[in-house]
Amino acid sequence: MGELVDFFVRSRNFILFILLEVLCFYFIINTSNYWSATYFNTSNRYAARVLAWSNAANEYARLAQVNADLATENQRLNTQLTQLLQSKPLSPDEYKADSTFAGRFNFTVAKVVNNTTQFANNYITIDKGTNDGIRPGMGVISPTGVVGKVKVCNQHFSVITSILHSDFLVSSQLVKAKEIGSAKWDGGDPHLIKLNDIAISRDKPIAKGDSVVTSEFNSTFPPNVLVGRVRSVGIQPNQTFHDITLNLATNFSNLSFVYVVENRLKDQQEQLEKQVESEK
User: Fold this and answer.
1) 180 in the same domain as 55
2) How many domains does the chain have?
3) What is the percent of the chain with per-residue pLDDT over 70, rounded to a whole number?
4) I need a labelling partner for 229 at 20 to 30 A (CA). Which of 57, 58, 136, 193 fits?
5) Please, are residues 43 and 51 in contact by the beta-carbon 8 Å criterion?
6) Are residues 263 and 217 in the same domain?
């Protein structure tokens, strides 16, 4: 307390000068219309700038929550869209799945906490585990396309085998040509992937820009989830299959939220198929 009193005593002349300056500005502003208007306009301009900076800072701080809310909303829309596409026929003569089959897919939103793209075998870690109903073998997608498949889980986290993995395959279909093949990463550019096993056919030419989606022939992903779009089309040396390169739909360099896909009928399907295989 004594040091504070000493400070005011030592600085009394300077403090008095500041108080007199403030008093002078007060009288000038209040006795002159010109300076009053100038002060009003200037103070409002700087106050508006400070308020704009404050609002921008608050909006930036809320981006994480906004992204989380959007991911949750996308989860709900994904569920409804998948069920609608499976249950509603496109024409009167088209096959219509029953309600149980159409609603077999369930989506759980999760946040990416670790992600690699620079290795031959890449993995992704998410913040959902067995406590949230996540199990190994479930498919994982992003708002833009296929991501991978759950490899291992504990109570609170799961590790995903990324589509950027040398052993990962996903059954895929060209939308326009209707041909089905396997999408597989070649270990190179993390933005590109190969579409294999598409036989050369003059009746079904492959066009650049054609979309490639997940096919009906897998129990991990819902059908029609985007895998990528055709970047280039060539011919393999054996002259039998196309050499097709796709631009991946998912950008793994800024992956934030994903959706874990549960196929509630997967165990029943695989159990029956294994039973048939064992009887051969």
Assistant:
1) no
2) 3
3) 66
4) 136
5) no
6) no
Alpha carbon distance, N-terminus to C-terminus of the chain: 94
The CA distance from 191 to 2, in Å, is 68
Is there a domain that residue 67 lies in?
A: no
Please count the other Cβ atoms lying within 10 Å of the Cβ belonging to residue 278.
7
Looking at the domain assignment, is residue 65 inside a domain?
A: no
Q: Please indicate, yes or no, if residue 25 is contained in any of the structural domains.
A: yes
Paired tokens of 274? 């294994």
Question: Residues 204-208: what's their mean pLDDT?
Answer: 84
192 in the same domain as 228: yes
d(CA 227, CA 196) in angstroms, rounded, equals 13
pTM of the predicted structure, to 2 decimals: 0.67
- Residue entry with tokens 């981006």: 63
Encoded amino acid at 111, one letter: K
Any residues with CB less than 8 A from the CB of 132 and at least 6 apart, and which?
Answer: 108, 110
CB count in 10 Å sphere of residue 44: 10
Residue 60 has pLDDT above 70, yes or no: no
The reported pLDDT for the residue numbered 207 is: 86
Q: Are residues 27 and 82 in the same domain?
A: no
Residue entry with tokens 């369930």: 106
37 located within any domain: yes
- Asked if residue 92 and residue 162 are part of one domain, the reply reads yes
* Residue closest to 152 by CA, chosen among 144, 161, 143: 161
Q: Which residues contact 116 (CB under 8 A, 6 or more apart)?
A: 122, 123, 124, 162
Domain around 18: 2-60
How far, CA to CA in Å, does 260 sit from each of 15, 138, 142?
66, 7, 9
| Inter-residue contact 137 to 156 (CB < 8 Å) | no
Burial class (CB in 10 A: 0-12, 13-18, 19+), 192: middle
- Domain identity same for 150 and 264: yes
